[in-house]
Design a protein that fits this description.
The structure holds 2 protein chains of 2 kinds.
Chain A lengths: L3 E4 L2 E5 L4 E7 L7 E6 L6 E6 L5 E4 L2 E6 L4 E6 L8 E8 L6 E3 L3 E6 L1
Parallel strand pairs in A: 2-11
Antiparallel strand pairs in A: 1-3, 3-8, 4-5, 4-9, 6-7, 7-8, 9-10, 9-11
Chain B lengths: L4 E3 L2 E4 L5 E6 L6 E7 L5 E8 L2 E5 L7 E4 L6 E5 L8 E8 L8 E2 L3 E5 L1
Classes of the chains: A mainly beta, B mainly beta.
Chain lengths: ~110, ~110
C-alpha cells in the first residue's frame, strides 16, 4: 500500500509560536488534500482542505500550502495555542477510488 | 449538528468470537467507511461502501470482515472470528461527496480481544 509520509512525528511548540507539519505522497489520483485533527479518545475531525488549483488556503490560524511538483503539502498553525495540542493527519486519495489513505500522524504539543 | 454515532463504545471479547460494531451515519450521506486505529497510531482504511455494495477495501479487510447496511440508517462491521491483533479502535465515517475527502467520523468503538 502506498505510503503517505508526515513529518515531524512529534512537535513541541511554545504558545504563540508557529507549528508546521509536512505531508509527502507518492501519487495521487484525485486532487483534494484534507488535514484532520484528532484529540485523545475522539475520532478524527476535518480541519482544513485544499484543492491544488490554488497553492495556499487560509482559515483563521490554519493555512495549507501545496507544492504539486514536489508532491507535498503542509499545515501551518499560526499563534499556536494549548488547545491545538492534538494529533494531526493528512489524507490522500492514492488510487482514484476515493480510498483516502491517512498519513502517519504528527503529535503536536503546545506549551502554555 | 448532525453526527455519526457508534455503538458500543467499548467491547471486550474472547479470541475466536464474532463481533458486530454498529454505526449510524449522518442521514443524508451516501458514502460510508470503516477505519481502524491501533493504540493511537495511524488511521488505517478498511473499507468503503456505496449503493449497498463495497466500493473499495484494503488488504486488512479479509474474509473475516464484512459490512452491511441492513436498513436505511445502520451500517455495521462484522468480524467473524476475532484475533488478538484485531484489538483496535474502529471508526465509522460517512460523507456526502466522496471526491472531497471530507469524512465525518464517529467517536469510535474500542475492541479488546483477549
Amino acid at each position: 500500500q502506498q505510503q503517505v509520509k508526515q513529518s515531524p512525528q512529534s512537535l513541541i511548540v511554545q504558545k504563540g509560536g508557529i507549528s508546521i507539519i509536512n505531508c509527502a505522497y507518492e501519487n495521487t489520483a484525485f486532487d483534494y488534500f484534507p488535514w484532520y485533527q484528532q484529540f485523545p479518545g475522539k475520532g478524527p475531525a476535518l480541519l482544513i482542505a485544499i484543492r491544488p488549483d490554488v497553492s495556499e488556503k487560509k482559515e483563521g490560524r490554519f493555512t495549507i500550502s501545496f507544492n504539486k511538483s514536489a508532491k507535498q503539502f503542509s499545515l501551518h498553525i499560526m499563534d499556536s495555542q494549548p488547545g491545538d495540542s492534538a494529533t494531526y493527519f493528512c489524507a490522500v486519495d492514492t488510487s482514484g477510488t476515493y480510498k483516502y489513505i491517512f498519513g502517519t500522524g504528527t503529535r503536536l504539543k503546545v506549551l502554555a | 449538528e448532525p453526527e455519526v454515532t457508534q455503538t458500543p463504545s467499548h467491547q471486550v471479547t474472547q479470541m475466536g468470537q464474532e463481533v458486530i460494531l454498529r454505526c449510524v451515519p449522518i442521514s443524508n450521506h451516501l458514502y460510508f467507511y470503516w477505519y481502524r486505529q491501533i493504540l493511537g497510531q495511524k488511521v488505517e482504511f478498511l473499507v468503503s461502501f456505496y449503493n449497498n455494495e463495497i466500493s473499495e477495501k484494503s488488504e486488512i479487510f479479509d474474509d473475516q470482515f464484512s459490512v452491511e447496511r441492513p436498513d436505511g440508517s445502520n451500517f455495521t462491521l462484522k468480524i467473524r472470528s476475532t484475533k488478538l491483533e484485531d484489538s483496535a479502535m474502529y471508526f465509522c465515517a460517512s460523507s456526502w461527496d466522496r471526491r472531497t475527502g471530507e469524512l465525518f467520523f464517529g467517536e469510535g468503538s474500542r475492541l479488546t480481544v483477549l
